[in-house]
Amino acid sequence: MSSPARIQIAAPHLNGNESKYVQECMDTVWISSAGHFVTDFEQAFAQFCEVEHVIAANNGTTALHLALVALDLGPGDEVIVPTLTYIASANAVTYTGATPVFVDSEPDGMTIDVEDVRRKITPRTKAIMPVHLYGHACDLTSLKALADEHGIPIVEDAAEAHGARADGKRVGSVGLVNSFSFFGNKIMTTGEGGAVTTNDAELAAKLRLLRGQGMDPQRRYWFPVVGYNYRMTNIQAAIGLGQLEKIDEKLAIRKDLAAWYDERLGAQPEVTIPKPPAWSESVNWLYTVRVDVRTSEARDRLIELLEADGIESRPVFYPMHQLPPYLDEQAVFPVADAISIGGISLPTHTQLTESDIDRITERLLHHLPAVRS
Ligand SMILES: *Cc1c(COP(=O)(O)O)cnc(C)c1O
């Protein structure tokens, strides 16, 4: 008897015009960062995000760095970041010389706790970075009101939430400058890739200058500032355009996957499913639940048992204050710490079927009593 195929946690799905567009790059030899796919992709992504300007970048981390550099951050400045995030959010702040100041998350959507943001604002706070974690939108309405009260810009890290909405607004359209990632495991991909979004024309021009080594657009090889080479290639953009043409289909499948998981796990007392608030429209990047275990070792054992059954899963992100570069043993973040003990991300990609979700949840519920005892 052959065993069923291994279920991967994430997988790119290139079922549109990606190959055709990449072939065009090859045939025309426009394989570097000049070429029409870059501008076509930027325009199409701007329309999708309901935002004025998109500046494509070579990955999501450089996009986020660019967004922060455009705000002239430097040593002595503080940026408020949730401790429960992927390390790129905090590292992008560190690259500028500014200091990330961590805050807790709220339990239902696992996103930034607005009341904790309020407590951590100081005269040095130069930006607030909500992260739309695992596809769940942050409470942008409350955050924007708080940020405006203090005159502090919002920089959304929307790397995991292409297409999500908060109170009807697309993520990546509310902050002053915002960023996305198109890494291979994200909701849409360009292989490696990223983008900055903004509605501010002046900032958009500054971002383009900084992305292209700082070269004056009116005077070739004249560099008024220290810039970066963070350009996206035409090949990446060709893949991205193919992905974007099918984004609605991708988001619909992810909605089904989350509903199937909810149905099978929602009534289990030992499993806490994500409960994005009614004002949000989640895009379900990685379906992430909390299992009721006393130690993270028990959760890790569950991941091993699932792997032995041919099912890939992974622990929730380690909160930043637990990691060596940002270690703070005194810090207490009750919600992030609790999520980090029992949090587990389950397979979520657009080639999964309802019977895959049956198999994953059946195996998870089968192994759970053993690791809890
Ligand atoms: C993926 C991700 C990034 C960075 O994206 P890369 O394209 O991998 O550099 C930033 N922030 C968050 C929250 C992410 O998940």
UniProtKB/TrEMBL annotation:
Domain of life: Bacteria
PANTHER family xrefs: DTDP-4-AMINO-4,6-DIDEOXYGALACTOSE TRANSAMINASE (PTHR30244:SF34), TRANSAMINASE (PTHR30244)
Transferase found in the keyword field: yes
UniProt name for this protein: DegT/DnrJ/EryC1/StrS family aminotransferase
Cofactor or coenzyme needed: pyridoxal 5'-phosphate
Active site per database record: K186 (proton acceptor)
Family the entry assigns: Belongs to the DegT/DnrJ/EryC1 family.
Gene Ontology biological process terms, A to Z: polysaccharide biosynthetic process
UniProt KW keywords: Aminotransferase, Pyridoxal phosphate, Transferase
